[in-house]
Automatic annotation (TrEMBL):
Organism: Psychrobacillus psychrotolerans
InterPro entries registered for this protein in UniProt: Isoprenoid_synthase_dom_sf (IPR008949), Polyprenyl_synt (IPR000092), Polyprenyl_synt_CS (IPR033749), Prenyl_diphosphate_synthase (IPR053378)
Catalytic activity: isopentenyl diphosphate + (2E)-geranyl diphosphate = (2E,6E)-farnesyl diphosphate + diphosphate
Alphabetical list of Pfam families matching this protein: polyprenyl_synt
Organism taxonomic ancestry: Bacteria, Bacillati, Bacillota, Bacilli, Bacillales
NCBIfam families, alphabetized: FPPsyn (NF045485)
Protein name (database record): Farnesyl diphosphate synthase
Domain of life, source organism: Bacteria
Annotated TM spans: 105-127
Gene3D superfamilies in alphabetical order: Farnesyl Diphosphate Synthase
Length: 294
């Protein structure tokens, strides 16, 4: 990881962590519910999604006091999805980020409700932000609900479940991942662009970058599921193989998956080149995503 990206993460990750804690602790809600929400929010994680939102604004040289809150709400939605993914009815996992999963600690009912509370909380938080115009708040909420819902992350999860035990084409696998993983990651990038109120040209280039980097993120996940260890990943390694899930290595071979990973990186880089943003944080994030080991 470059010094530029390391410094950016070291500066902003603690701010995201504090914002997440403060947003939950001030809720007038039952303490067991807040404990379950905070347990998963504070379990660690790379914070890639909220950091991406802040990185876009940094690259565009735009400052907004509410940006850290918008970024943190994306981590809330991501965390809700992990809590629900780990449930016995879904992936049935006991380990997440190196710790017992939420339902193992708090029970299935409270885990489900903690996820429900996170997903419903974020839209009210955005609606009440004082430093973003009503028009841009509506745009954020609109794109967020799309990315997290039936036409995005949730729809992708359903397609992933339906595909278990079947042999999918590469196009079908990409459809799953563009929704399940890519939609929320793309929103993280576009949220920064929305807050900055960028031109159509910049928005279009960032959408293209987000499209390719979202697929690259999932390809690397699939590779790590086979090449990584549970200790490295903080979750059960080899779970995709056990669950008979379609992955990039299973369809393309490991060599083919690594070639496709590089191809997606190249396409993301070219998108940034078109708007002269090929030398900053967004390229460094692309390098990190395609070369990470956990």
């Amino acid at each position: 990881m470059s010094n530029l990206l390391t410094s950016f993460i070291e500066t902003n990750q603690p701010l995201i962590d504090k914002t997440l804690h403060d947003l939950i602790k001030d809720l007038k809600a039952p303490q067991p519910l807040k404990d379950a929400m905070l347990y998963s929010l504070q379990a660690g994680g790379k914070r890639v999604r909220p950091l991406y939102t802040l990185a876009v604004l940094k690259e565009l040289d735009v400052q907004n006091e509410d940006a850290i809150i918008v970024a943190s709400t994306i981590e809330m939605i991501h965390t809700y999805s992990l809590i629900h993914d780990d449930l016995p009815a879904m992936d049935n996992d006991d380990l997440r980020r190196g710790k017992p999963t939420n339902h193992i600690v708090f029970g299935e009912a409270l885990a489900i409700l903690a996820g429900d509370a996170l997903i419903t909380l974020v839209f009210g938080i955005i609606a009440r932000l004082p430093n973003i115009s009503p028009e841009l708040k509506i745009a954020l909420i609109d794109k967020f609900s799309f990315a997290a819902g039936a036409e995005g992350m949730v729809g992708g999860q359903v397609l992933d479940m339906l595909g278990e035990g079947q042999t999918l084409t590469l196009e079908q696998l990409e459809e799953i991942h563009l929704n399940k993983t890519g939609a929320l990651l793309s929103y993280s990038i576009l949220a920064g662009a929305i807050i900055a109120n960028v031109s159509e040209e910049v928005m279009s280039a960032l959408k293209e970058y987000a499209f390719h980097i979202g697929l690259a993120f999932q390809i690397q996940d699939d590779i790590l599921d086979l090449e990584g260890t549970s200790e490295q990943l903080g979750k059960t390694a080899g779970k995709d193989l056990i669950s008979q899930k379609n992955t990039y290595p299973s369809i393309l071979t490991m060599e083919g998956a690594k070639k496709e990973l590089q191809n997606r990186y190249n396409l993301a880089f070219h998108a940034l080149e078109s708007i002269q943003m090929q030398n900053g944080l967004l390229v460094e994030f692309a390098n990190y995503i395609t070369k990470r080991t956990k």
